[in-house]
């Protein structure tokens, strides 16, 4: 398997069928088991239930409604929706009809949304009340009542075609300081089958609960589309459900697999857990899972947590699995069907056990098509046939991958990757700030937040926090504001973020 070098080839998988449609693949179970429950939106008082037949009718009706409005295949639909089932219905409905949905976080501000709209030129914006939209939309704006009325249309035909064609765009922060549109093909859902065995241990009889909101891409993939692809049942907490209520819901709805970000597991462990006899294991992604949280969960529930590493450009591809647990300290193994390597600065594989940059082979069917309208930046992410993830890792002799950190300054806020440049650009607009540096700092073992070190006029943290709320989505907003006489610089006059991160300690009596 590559000798002593850090290359691991798990072999290919069957090619994606052609012609193909992502939404048709996700909802294929509707033809086989139309009356089976596909989705339960759960709350302590009960659940809203959607059968596969109802879900397919809503998706294809919505797709037909979009076409009846005059949208044409390839048009982009900007999604500005909250934590409701409308989110996956719009996403799959657009894809079913050959349109290109652009899901975005409901936390984005007006300036952030306007930048996205200017880049993607949407033909339609679908928005829920209270969610920011461009101040002057350059295209039609569809509200929830009108959107839901589309579900009554006769179902659209599945728009079949080349599996390599564009299916959807998702936004991720980048080292340029601006959010980038990641373009994914229809084949991306076919590639996710590698996760079913290599991470989830997913079966048709499973009841998978995801703790995230509908409008988070981690929920959309792991919590919804993947269980639907095999005919399993998805369980999503209703809007307003608190983390403290999740243990009761896990027990009441006979959850067999639980998926969440590490922070959610940490919250659940603050109180005694009930017996969960149906639960087989948990899934964790979005950020590094602290060992203390893993050990606490296993002690409280008697079930393991299977961790995964991934990114927006390729989803998860390194993971532990129920039948293939990770060694202590490691995140997991390359999933069956993946080809990965650990490379040095010259793009050559390093010896096993040597730190380097984690890379995914260009042939991976889940790899993105590129960054929208940014061929140069897309090309810069490749070293020959290898896509560079930016994660520093080490590969053991048996192929296990240990995550060592980022080889850039990207931050992680509750599972979201955030560019420090984006935060700094927004906060430097405050009149009291002359210069700033955004850094991820650890406030207590296993808990990190975004801190803003700034030079200028010392200003109450409450005022700076209020300004941040007008400029940045909540997950991008700093939680700490630290005044300095000057921002330290390196030899090339670059912000010394690493020095700030390493030199900072939590004040006595802090968080």
Provide an overview of this structure.
The protein is of the alpha/beta class and 511 residues long. It has a domain at 412-503: ANL, C-terminal domain (GMP Synthetase, Chain A, domain 3, 2-Layer Sandwich). 27% of the residues lie in helices and 27% in strands. It has 16 helices and 27 strands. The strands form 6 sheets. The chain has a 9-stranded mixed beta sheet with strand order 3-2-11-10-12-13-14-15-16, with helices on both faces. A hairpin with a 2-residue loop joins strand 25 and strand 26 (447-456). Helix 3 (52-68) packs across helix 4. The protein is globular and about 65 Å long. The termini are far apart.
What's the quick description here?
This protein has 511 residues and is α/β, with parallel strands linked by helices. Helix content is 27%, strand content 27%.
Q: Note the main sheet.
A: 9 strands, mixed
Level-2 CATH architecture of the domain at 412-503: 2-Layer Sandwich
**Which stretches are poorly predicted, pLDDT < 50 over at least 5 residues?**
none
User: Strand arrangement, largest sheet?
Assistant: 3-2-11-10-12-13-14-15-16
**Helix proportion:** 25-40%
The counted number of beta strands is 27
